[in-house]
């Protein structure tokens, strides 16, 4: 093991500056802990003139980050630019091909190109680590890829996007509007460059893809994730859920059904008895259903400068100690091409909010559709009374197959009395 580990840090935004701060603040501690000096050789961003609130004067400046992958004074490329294609992909590929280890926080890149990059890292005998890419400051990749390797995993449920959890929490506690809270999350450095990824489930889907790959020993396959975001939720849904004893959480869910891997991101109603119920603000959490340790639960800050930088540093410390772990928990040649199944075969209870015209016979038309699919209603509440006008009706069903429920809701939405698309939310009672 060498006495110094030299970093090239590409990207000096929210996360990149946090990493520089930790290296500068904890240099001596890191050396005592690893027996190796962790030093920054060079940094890169778009704008070399911007004051980033940290002293960069001792480091080389690189205009084109891909050239970091060719420098003799860089052992590890720390990729903190973002994006699944373009400069981040070129940089990581070139670094691995040139025999340099890579540490990245880029879940989009890993979800789309993880299998190829893992093979490249193995072929070149270098590390590729991405702890910060999933659930911010929670060491979930380490837990999944190392500590839980003695378990067969049946399912995993996670609150995997800090921005959307922050939005849902703020809407619930402060009655604030969606757009206002999203702006706040952006100002705090939680949101992606394109915040649509946070609210439409894409970002959580990227992270779920990586967790599913480790959990089930399959190649990451983002295309197989069913994505549903929080954009269509109303403040009323959050309030109805609260009245019923639930909170709405955007959950990433992966499980095996008859040997096939199911991957989905969708808002779910989580009961008060679940540990996920209390996960608020920018916090993330992961609940794993395993055969030996049963149901370990992890929580912590899921986004933001220092929690994410903490995870990046954990990966750098592994490299300083000479530790390299297979990218998805096993050699790439053993990763399987998963057979994927849709959520349609998953059975659960559902919350259904309808906006329907308040007139005689409406409930009969709705319940007739549910009856035709064998879906039984547990409770039904009408909010307000406005003859001839639209009112909200909220239903809770008994257990039903997702596929049946979705088709029934489509038919209910097409009834003349429906004035807007119904809102269907899974109730996750078993967590
Ligand atoms: P930012 O947008 O804050 O920072 C991105 C950085 O990349 C900026 O410094 C920018 O330069 C630089 N950059 C962009 N394009 C280029 C280019 N062509 N050449 C050189 N530098 C470039 O992003 P974050 O720090 O928030 O995120 C970085 C990564 O970490 C992403 O993959 C993100 O998904 C991931 N992540 C982020 C978390 C968070 O809480 N923010 C949490 C977990 C993961 P300049 O500053 O000059 O514009
Ligand atoms: N935008 C992401 C989130 C950052 O809000 O969770 C952390 O990956």
Task: Tell me what you see in this structure.
Helices cover 34% and strands 25% of the residues. It has 13 helices and 17 strands. The strands form two sheets. Strands 7, 8, 9, 10, 11, 12, 13, 14, 15, 16 and 17 form an eleven-stranded mixed beta sheet that branches. A six-stranded parallel beta sheet has the order 3-2-1-4-5-6, sandwiched between helices. Helix 3 runs parallel beside helix 4 and helix 12 (362-372) runs antiparallel to helix 13 (402-413). The chain is elongated and about 80 Å long. Residues 136, 161-163, 190-192, 198, 203, 302-303 line the site of L-homoserine. NADPH dihydro-nicotinamide-adenine-dinucleotide phosphate is lined by residues 11-16, 44-47, 50, 65, 80-82, 87, 105-106, 132-133, 136, 189-190, 192-193, 303-304, 308.
Q: Summarize this, please?
A:
The protein has 431 residues and is of the alpha/beta class. The protein has helices at residues 14-25, 27-34, 87-97, 107-123, 140-147, 162-174, 178-187, 196-199, 202-216, 235-243, 305-320, 362-372, 402-413, and strands at 4-10, 37-44, 60-61, 76-79, 101-104, 128-129, 153-159, 225-227, 246-257, 260-271, 283-290, 297-301, 347-357, 377-383, 390-397, 400-401, 423-427.
